[in-house]
Structure formats: structure tokens, C-alpha cells
């Protein structure tokens, strides 16, 4: 909601222009914010005026006016001075404070609405009723982006995103925790995966340039109706998690390009352990060293081509063959054979998944 600091700044700005002292009081007669030379009226005067039916009243040098929000009395504004000009300044101040309260309430309500929407905390009827009240179009194609800063930089990144993705364009930004932000991006009809990926690159490039941190971005599929935004959010969450586990070299991951990583991520832990035991029996090998893992991954990248892999690793072909045969003796899989290579690829991904779950615990 609106802070006292903002209210104070508003009254100070008005005083600087009009030279009229202003004060804002609660319904119990206590001062909320006042300008520097304001002489506070007695609390009983404020309370009596708040309980009266009048919208304005002059007592001595004090012009008292009521500040309302949707017909509900919120504050009593006091303008100090004599004459019609002081009264007009009071009216202007009352109107400005009312607009500020409404604007901040609208902003708070929108943020609250989208947080509940992505977390599936709203009934279907509430989605459409509240969207109508908040003037949010329900039939615009949207995609949810989840941005993980990896550190407590949410406020800084939030402000940067607002410079590019504005509410008037149908884009909304909210937070889910101190390290993550959610962008609900509106698209034009006909835009596709390539356009969605371009938005993700814009986010990572901008944050990298302006804040000099590398963020991870996961995004879901595009949904046509507002009620399905929670589905896109869940997909973005999965894309971010799966990317961290299986595709750590990528800082952008889309839900519809997760491949086998998405399949493994959805498997029960018991099945994953059963798979490892099925491959290795009671002789599960020790963790592969960094050099071996690098060799295996490079071999996979080159489609099991020994010559090309040895060239990229700056190894003699025979040295690479020796490493592959040594690995075969250790784990019982010959990665020069497609079936064994595929099996090892899946094993490595399952092991990474199990390690991730252990670290989470």
C-alpha cells in the first residue's frame, strides 16, 4: 500500500508550489504526515469532523477536508491559512491524495491478483471477475518467464524489467521469492517460439549488461486465456529446475525443448535408483572424474566420432581409444556402441537428478 514517505513527499511538493502548510491525520486525530511549519489542530477537532456529515469545514485557520477512497473515509486533510486560495489548495491536495491511494491500491491488487493466479489460488469465476475489475484483458496470448537471479537482487532486476516490459502493454511483473521474479508477457496473435526465445535473450542480455550478473531464465508455453497462466508458470518452473540439473551450460531453457531431462525429472526416485541398479547391479562404479566426464561429453557432442573427438581434445586417437576402453572396464559400457552410449547418457542424467534431490534435502 501507499507509504507515509510518498504521502509526505506529495504534501511537501504542494507546499513548495503554493506555500500553504498541509497535514494529513488519521480518524483518531493523530498526525500521519505534516509539512514543516504546520500547526497541528487538537485531535478532538479532527475526530469531531470525521464523525460529522460535512465534507469540509473551517475552524480558525484550519480548513478541514475528507479524503475518501471508494466512498470510504481514509484521512482528514488540513490546510492551514485563511482565504479561498487555502481552501482550493486543500481541495487539490485531497484530490491528489485520493488518486495516489487508488493508484497504489490498484497496483497492490494487481500484484496480489497475479501472485494468486500463477499459484492457482483463485476460483475460475474469481479470475474473470477480478480481471474485469482490474481492467486486465483475459483473451491475450501470454507466456510466463521465471527469472532466477541466484542472489538477492530482486528489487534491482525488477526495476530493470519494468523499463522494458510495461503494464500498459499487457506485461506484468511480480515476485515469488527474494531470488526469483515472474514476468507474464503478452504476445500478439501469431507470434511463436522464436519470438518467446527472443524475449528470454533480451532479459538475460539486459541484466548481464546493466547489473553484471548471469541469470537463469525458464519459460513455459504460450497460453491463449488468462485462466491458463498458472499452467505456463508451472512449465516455466519445471524448465528452470530441469535446466539447472541437466543443462547447466544453458542460461535459458524452454519447457517445450527439455527433451529427456523433463522425462527423468518426473520419474519417482525409486524408479531412478532401480534403473541404476539394473545397469550396474551390485557394482555401482565410483563417481567419474572430471577428465573422464569431459571426454565422454565431448564424445557425445561429436556423435561418437573418435577422430573428431580426439582432434578437439588435442589427443592422439590411440589415447582416446585407451580412455574409452578403460571406461568400459570400469562401468561395463562401451560408448562406441550406440546402445551403450545412450545408456550412459541417461545414467549420467539420472545421477545428476539424484544428486540434485540430495542437495535439496
Architecture blueprint of SSEs:
Blueprint: H1 4-18, E1 21-25, E2 31-34, H2 43-51, E3 56-59, E4 62-69, E5 72-80, H3 84-118, H4 124-133, E6 142-148, H5 154-164, E7 172-177, E8 180-186, H6 193-210, E9 216-219, H7 229-246, E10 252-254, H8 260-265, H9 269-280, H10 290-301, H11 306-312, H12 317-331, H13 338-360
Parallel strand pairs: 9-10
Antiparallel strand pairs: 1-2, 1-5, 3-4, 4-5, 6-8, 6-9, 7-8
Write up this protein.
The chain is built from 13 helices and 10 strands. It is α+β, with helices and mostly antiparallel strands. The chain folds into 3 domains: 4-107, GAF domain (Beta-Lactamase), CATH 3.30.450; 124-259, 2-Layer Sandwich (Alpha-Beta Plaits), CATH 3.30.70.270; 267-360, PucR C-terminal helix-turn-helix domain (Arc Repressor Mutant, subunit A), CATH 1.10.10.2840. Strand 1 (21-25) and strand 2 form a beta hairpin. The radius of gyration is 31 Å and the shape is elongated. The two termini are 37 Å apart.
